[in-house]
Amino acid sequence: MIRRSTWFVVVVFLVLVASVLYWNNREVPPGEAGETPQSSLGVETALVFDIPEGVYVAGLRVEDAEGNLVEMQRKDEESPWAIIEPPRDDADSDRIQGVVDQLTFMSVDTALVTAPELDVVGLEAPQYSILLTFSDGQQHSLYIGDETITTTSYYARLDDGLPFVVGMYDVESAVGILENLPVLPTPTSESEPVLTEEP
Asked: Is the residue at 10 inside a domain?
């Protein structure tokens, strides 16, 4: 004869199995479909910029707190990039596209459960602002604040949204063009050595 306690354990086990099957196979309600997936550590897997299919970046503007800026544009997805501010005619289109690609694939490292005050994380007066203009006419600004306590990431904010954390490498590869303009190297001419006759 099976003890009553044994039956209890069996019932609890069946309930747990049924719960796991339900949660693994349930359909996500429409209201939850757009929620950002997170791991148990709170690290988000979402991209910073939500770019619709068929839309591309047509303009990039990077500016620091002192007013130094670089602005680049292109006519269409197949056209090369041009630097319009400061005016240059020697833009390195491949390098600019590399920066754009890195920005479009930039992910949110960490979502902040409690949103800090903007002045506490350097977003009241950001160190940098990165403006992306898209082919559909939309524009989005990414504001960069202070480094986090780990010194491996920055506090950031998209438009007027809540602060979050992004990787340092992604940020510095973009803002680095302020000091190192994405221009083609100046060709150097090799001069032939001049032979002189010995006296």
From this structure: no
